[in-house]
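Feature request disguised as a bug report, sorry. It would help if multi-protein outputs had a clear separator. Right now it looks like this:
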Amino acid sequence: MASYDLRGLRVYRSYLTELGGFALGKSYRMGRELLQDLEAGLCCDILLMDEKLADMHAFEFLRRLHQCRLPRLPQVVMLSGWESSRARPFSLAADPLHPAGNYCIMDSYSLSDMAQSLSVLYDLDLEQLTRRCRSLCEEWAGQFSETDCAYLVESVQIAFQCRRKMAIRKEILLPVSKRHKVTISAVDSGIRRLIEASEKEGRPSWQAFKQSFRFKTQRPSTGELIYSVKALLQNNTPSLEEGALRRDEQTEHTF
């Protein structure tokens, strides 16, 4: 955890400690000190961070973090209302860090909301998210393009990074397109191909999925599919056939 506010750090630590299930590491006020420890081998799954540290803004910390040669970047969770901050240096859609998908912003929240969101975020890291989305694509379409599946995985990952409903093309498909160096339309078409392949196969699992989410039209739109897959995974709903999406054994969350 990192923040200029020592009192806030104590509140977060006390709440998560009482709740249990979280392995809490050292707290930091200085971003420079945290970066030094990470480069020296400090390992953590999630960095819980306020927008301001004692020596730098959190966006500056993110830039420096990306310059570190770490074997694995931790997920960074911001705990302030950056969406409405006038001091915010740039928008998410234009931010070159956003496509990397290693940070998210938690808007207005309660301590219980924070703990629940952290648990979901930990349980759905990119590797697990890829595996679970692939299982769904295999259930629904059988054969599919790996690139199209990657578009879906990364779109769902971005949707997980914000509690509010995001603009599909500007805030979700645009970062994915930048990461793959293609157009927004190419990403949209790739996800639509997954939908069309699932429609063509017409398997019971796909029909049950559509019925469960009650789409407005016979086939879901790109945005509807992204947010329905997010809801399916977020609610820890078992796979509609063989239970392929059951949660892995619960582990402690390291901060």
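(second protein starts here, but nothing in the output says so)
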Amino acid sequence: MGRMLELILFAFGIISGTINTMLGMGAGTFMIILLTFINIPIKIAVPLSLLSILFSSIIGTIFYFRRGMIKLKLAILLQSSAAIGAMLGAMFLLTLPSSLIELLLAIVLFHVAFLVLLYNPCNSPETMKCRSFSLGLGLFFSFIAGVISSTIGIGGGIISVPVMNLVMNVPINFSVATSNFMIGLTALVGVLIYYIEGILNFQTSIPVIIGAILGALLGTRYMIRNRPNSIRIMVGILILIFGIILLLRRVALILV
């Protein structure tokens, strides 16, 4: 592996780690697109992306847990619901065309992005006691997130953060911290599978891991120092970008 490639992977790790811990959303989609753009095979790009999410999530979890920002019981409940949805989503994939699902999700993400940007459901961002929240609705939407995640391969964090914030009235900084923990659990499962299958390339993994750790240190500190409204705006923008990516991917396939 050349020195230039090591630097590129290191930079990708920093970007991914920063986004993961600062916004609670796995930056895997962006990383995979960028890695395949520089001719890294998809079978190598996917585990590299998962590694960056895993190690940045570990750093973020330690950082946020010490500050009491991760709600473990809530995370486990939502993750369990999402796991059930993911299993059903894999079967659901066989009945509906992925193009239709991606198009519908893009429309939903545009709507969610504008809600996140324009509507703040919690007026007390520094505490969980801002308003009672609906656990039932949260579990339902987490289930939907699991279905979507396994159907078209988009990370559940892009949905779990707005679900916790908009539906369950969890402050945005607590939502980000809890989601960071959740995406780490999901990434761990993927990394273990790729390790067992012998797909992980440790030579290319080291720059990504180091970059992800440094990015996580940057992301956690940025999230703590910024006002919740600033974090909420960045979350909304990232969701909007995901929606645009899905829409453009559908348009590109139609044109081809």
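Even a blank line would do. Unrelated, but nice: Residues 3-255 form one domain.
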